[in-house]
UniProtKB/TrEMBL annotation:
Any one Gene Ontology BP term: cell migration
Taxon lineage: Eukaryota, Metazoa, Chordata, Craniata, Vertebrata
A GO MF label: small GTPase binding
Protein's recorded name: DOCK2 protein
GO CC annotation terms, alphabetical: cytoplasm; plasma membrane
Sequence ranges assigned to domain Dedicator of cytokinesis N-terminal in this UniProt record: 2-202
Pfam family, one: DOCK_N
Length: 218
């Protein structure tokens, strides 16, 4: 049973990386989500945990918003699917260390970034959005890391000084094989409509305006 759960966890980790990559087409994304939920339900069954019923998109059904009859049919359908899945798994003859080979063939990597300082004369508050960027495909391949920087040259949350750290995770061999990956910082100014405005009665504060961008090969 331990080897079964270990193999399933390796599968889920690999599929999670694919889901977070943001590169899958819509139809493949839906198919992969169904595989993930099916694997989770199967794991709960062999571990003798509670059965979770879901809708067609893999979302957990809310018992407060679903009728008793609909929940019964969903339980019945889920039980049949899991029973068929168990029969399929029992009929397979996989080598004991197949999970290790799958894991080694698709390892994940991470990029650790420590923001020490931000030097740019703006005169107002700023928001820094940091992300990983593929210059060949002209696309961002990670989520944004947000840092709010004050007009006095310090983070808005002063307790975060010297503690602005982020780890970009789930980078696979496909990402490492890219020709170049840039760490891009987009700067957004937060304040007046125009920096030249001086009369407080004539301008509006709190407006967000693109100010600049910086990048470095990661």
């Amino acid at each position: 049973r331990f080897q079964q759960v270990q193999s399933m966890m390796y599968d889920l980790m690999e599929w999670r990386s694919q889901l977070l990559s943001g590169t899958l087409p819509k139809d493949e994304l839906k198919e992969l989500k169904q595989k993930v939920t099916s694997k989770i339900d199967y794991g709960n069954k062999i571990l003798e945990l509670d059965l979770i019923v879901r809708d067609e998109d893999g979302n957990i059904l809310d018992p407060d918003k679903t009728s008793v009859i609909s929940l019964f049919h969903a339980h019945e359908e889920a039980t049949n699917k899991i029973t068929e899945r168990i029969k399929e798994e029992m009929s397979k003859d996989q080598p004991d260390y197949a999970s290790y080979s799958r894991m080694s063939s698709s390892p994940t990597h991470s990029l650790y970034v420590f923001v020490r300082n931000f030097v740019c004369r703006i005169g107002e508050d700023a928001e820094l959005f940091m992300s990983l960027y593929d210059p060949q495909k002209l696309t961002i391949i990670s989520e944004n890391y947000l840092v709010r920087w004050g007009s006095r040259g310090f983070p808005k949350e002063i307790d975060m000084l010297n503690n602005l750290k982020v780890v970009f995770t789930d980078l696979g061999n496909k990402d490492l094989s890219r020709d170049k990956i840039y760490l891009v910082c987009q700067i957004v100014r937060v304040g007046r409509m125009d920096l030249k405005d001086s009369n407080s009665k004539k301008y509006t504060q709190g407006l967000r305006r693109p100010f600049g961008v910086a990048g470095n090969c990661a």
